[in-house]
Design brief:
The complex is a heterodimer of chains A (130) and B (100). Chain A is α/β, with parallel strands linked by helices. In chain A, 37% of the residues lie in helices and 20% in strands. Chain A has a five-stranded parallel beta sheet, sandwiched between helices. Chain B has four helices and five strands; from the N terminus they run βαβαβαβαβ. Helices cover 29% and strands 21% of the residues of chain B. Chain B has a five-stranded parallel beta sheet with strand order 4-3-2-1-5.
Chain lengths: 130, 100
């Protein structure tokens, strides 16, 4: 079955990022397709590569990047939410004259249309948030 | 329809809203702090008993374990599922409503 995932909360806040990650991982293990994971509102904070949590703790952002690499996932952060929170890819950083970009590997920045598309294309949409 | 609730009913009213909107035959999965609604001996116990089995109630096992809640502490009629069971519930129901 084709699943879409919506993540509305940042990592290390409550539990939504962890729950969404575990759900996505197990859905893939069970042979389902993850059409896209869309990160909205504070959820865009899952998409920075500059996090450095203690070494004996899970690194939520890295977990997403590794899962994306392993399964060729489409991880999309909302552009408007991302700009407000300082999540930039190379072209956005250049466009806004910032000295660095910080989008994590496997993530891309796009618009809300990508969430609408999940609703159209997927059999199921599962939301995680606060 | 599958409903998911992720907050304690003693912190937020999403579980109450869920019960007020759910239709007979719907399933409700308690995850994260939502699992506290499934415990025996709380103010929610009578509310759940009053549903007379119209809804199928589930609690996510890993979230019980993370909070030190033993399955024996749960109300009767609550089924414990793992993440695989969560995925199956989503697949079995045509729509998933997340109460946030």
């Amino acid at each position: 079955m084709k699943f879409g995932i919506l993540v509305n909360e940042g990592p290390y806040t409550h539990q939504a990022s962890d729950s969404a990650y575990q759900f996505t991982k197990v859905a893939l293990e069970k042979g389902h397709e993850i059409y896209r994971v869309f990160f909205y509102n504070d959820g865009v904070n899952n998409g920075t590569r500059l996090t450095v949590p203690p070494q004996d703790e899970r690194n939520i952002q890295n977990n997403w990047s590794e899962l994306a690499k392993e399964h060729d996932l489409d991880l999309v952060v909302c552009v408007a939410a991302a700009q407000r929170r300082g999540i930039l890819d190379e072209s956005e950083a250049k466009r806004h004259s910032k000295d660095v970009d910080n989008i994590a590997p496997g993530f891309r920045i796009s618009g809300l249309g990508q969430l609408i598309e999940i609703g159209i294309e997927c059999d199921r949409l599962v939301a995680f948030g606060d | 329809m599958l409903h998911t609730v992720n907050k304690s009913p003693f912190e937020k009213t999403t579980f109450e809203s869920c019960l007020n909107h759910a239709r007979p035959g719907d399933a409700v999965l308690l995850i994260e702090d939502g699992i506290y609604a499934a415990m025996k001996g709380t103010a929610m116990a009578d509310r759940i008993a009053g549903m007379n089995g119209e809804l199928s109630l589930y609690a996510l096992g890993p979230d019980l374990a993370a909070r030190g809640v033993d399955e024996g502490a749960l109300l009767e009629g609550i089924s414990v599922v793992d993440y695989g069971g969560f995925v199956d519930l989503v697949a079995e129901h045509d729509v998933t409503q997340t109460w946030l």
